[in-house]
Amino acid sequence: MTDRRSAGMEVRRAVLGDAHVDRAEAAKSAFDTPFQDMITESAWGTVWASDGISRRERSMLTVALLAATGNFEEIAMHIRATERTGASPTDIAEALQHVAIYAGVPRANHALKIAKETYREMGIEI
């Protein structure tokens, strides 16, 4: 295991939780292992492992970028991760207001819907 992959796996577990990572690892096949390794090394072992900004800020940026680009599939996962990164529901709401202004109200509105549903599932009253 490379240093970057090892660091990436450590950060990935810290942010997403062991249960999520264990499920993802168990679901890997020969087909997608190279892709999963790339994500672990680059996204988690480089970007998320950097100490240039906090994990709280990375959570806010990630949710905003996912919403702004219309990649809604991972928003719930990253909302759940806020319990470990320190981004509050208020932080996420503020980030999604930026999305509304700079990327469009429909995308921000849809992301807010996902966030509200996810917080409700998490037992977090908003």
From TrEMBL:
InterPro entries: 4CMD/NDH-1_regulator, AhpD-like, CMD-like, Decarb_PcaC. One of its GO terms (molecular function) is peroxiredoxin activity. Residues 35-117 form the Carboxymuconolactone decarboxylase-like domain. PANTHER family: 4-CARBOXYMUCONOLACTONE DECARBOXYLASE FAMILY PROTEIN, CARBOXYMUCONOLACTONE DECARBOXYLASE-LIKE DOMAIN-CONTAINING PROTEIN. NCBIfam families: decarb_PcaC. This is Carboxymuconolactone decarboxylase-like domain-containing protein. It comes from Palleronia abyssalis.
